[in-house]
Amino acid sequence: MRVLVVEDEELMAEAVAEGLRQEAFAVDVAHDGAAALEKLAVNDYDVMVLDRDLPLVHGDEVCRQAVASGSGVRVLMLTVSVTVADRVAGLSLGADDYLPKPFAFAELVARVRALGRRARPAVPPVLERAGLRLDPHHRETYRDGRYVNLSRKEFAVLEELLRAEGAVVSAETLLEKVWDENMDPFTTIVRVTISGLRRKLGDPQLIETVTAVGYRVK
Description:
The protein is of the alpha/beta class.
């Protein structure tokens, strides 16, 4: 899942972004509304965590333009304002959820994960296919009942493949959803991560390479 964190307090932004990365999300960061709009124009995000009080372009306008673009990004709005009127105003702009500051990080993660599910076709909370069982909430993976210890990126790649329900997922899509904008588009990291996944999942191999197209779970 790809997330854009928009927060002008840099320490807060980096803390939120790093915490989300620990949960196997791909995260980009913007520190003002103008930068957020630029990133939204060139990247496909599942969820935007949006501080309402932003410099250059106010968070309300970022939300309004994001919704008007039809990109499908889900918006979780953050603010120190806690009145009902403020919440209603934020939601009326098109925000999907609202979280007042200060907040518990576990709640933020849960809300981002829930919005991410709404950004795509509905899938079960636990993904299962071909003897694989992947639980995104607890970050646990099993093959035929055997626990498989995966790195964050391996887990995120496998989640994308299982979400596709047997359809082929291109390396470009995996790069877009699992890594952030700083990743070199010509990197071999996807191939290396798939190789690591295959090794850990064991035989018989479940991840198939479709030449010149991508990967899928058989």
